[in-house]
Design a protein that fits this description.
The protein has 117 residues and is an alpha+beta fold. It has a domain at 34-102: Translation Initiation Factor IF3 (2-Layer Sandwich), CATH 3.30.110. Helices cover 22% and strands 18% of the residues. The chain has a 4-stranded mixed beta sheet with strand order 1-2-4-3. Strand 1 (35-39), helix 1 (46-54) and strand 2 form a beta-alpha-beta unit. The longest helix is centred in the middle third of the chain and has 17 residues, at 70-86.
Length: 117
């Protein structure tokens, strides 16, 4: 784009460079339920994630690293279903390579909220 100026390039902020005060703990103190985000690289990672659900927290699991391993995925989904049943919670896929597991009293609505045009 020689000779042309990029209009509006300064209107966007790169959030990856921003540092937020107490970023790791912001807003969690005093909360009854906390949304935790976890990543799975192998089946053994599951215990740390399920402990959070047993402690009453909602967990979003990114399973991208194991998504192509059918056996591990079957084991993971079976275990997460058991945990959800144990705590009277819920489990559902909420996006590409994302699962959500909820504690007691929290159910997942399978209907997407869509904007109207």
């Amino acid at each position: 784009m020689a000779g042309k100026e990029m209009v509006g390039a300064e209107q966007y902020i790169d959030l990856t460079d921003m540092v937020f005060e107490d970023e790791g703990l912001a807003g969690t103190e005093g909360a009854k339920t906390v949304v935790k985000v976890g990543e799975m690289f192998r089946f053994e990672d599951l215990s740390a994630l399920t402990n959070e659900v047993y402690n009453g927290n909602l967990v979003v699991v990114d399973y991208t690293s194991i998504a192509n391993d059918d056996l591990t995925m079957k084991r993971v989904t079976a275990e997460l279903k058991n945990v959800a049943r144990d705590v009277d919670g819920d489990v559902a896929g909420v996006g590409r390579n994302l699962l959500m597991v909820t504690p007691q009293g929290v159910k997942i609505d399978r209907n997407k909220i869509r904007g109207g045009f």
